[in-house]
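Lecture 7 notes: from sequence to structure.

We start with a single chain of 189 residues. Read the sequence below before looking at the structure.
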Amino acid sequence: MDPSILVSVQDPGSFEYGILFARTLPLVREGRLQVVIQVCAPLIAYGLKGTVHAILAHEFLHYLELIHRASGAITSDETSGNIRDSVYADGTRVLEPGAVFSDRTLVSHITKRFPAGFRDARLEAKTITNWIDAGLPRTGVDLGGNTAVLPAGGLAGLRLETGLAERLKIMAEKSSRMRGRMARAASGI
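Now the structure, written as tokens:
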């Protein structure tokens, strides 16, 4: 847990910022890929149980996506210069929750709270009032710096267990089918 709040700033002269309650970070240590989920203190201090579960599940989806991408040697994401595009890209870089989780309540929490980026007005208000305005520690994150870059050297020896590789492939295919159905439903086909 990080004893600060991560705040992404769109532009140094702008008052618009985004609060990152958690993020997934790939690291290479001793030649091995490790994935760390960084959770910020205000999430634990002020988040309701359903919100905490939804955020952690969303970050787990990022973890699965990183492992899936690493096994296919895709090594980086596109970057964005503004918060709106960054939020949209975040939602498109994960597997569909229904393709991974069977708990309908959890899937509902994730899809309701992350339709176009995480929004929890209560948590955000408490964080701003009780943390940011109170002058408690915060760390600025450049939007371009909040992307996953998988170092090729750390991927060279990456081998997934056969069962995990197969399971990830099944989840990715199911996720793709779900996105296709959602796109057809949205277009009225």
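Confidence is low (pLDDT under 50) at residues 73-91. Keep this in mind for problem set 3.
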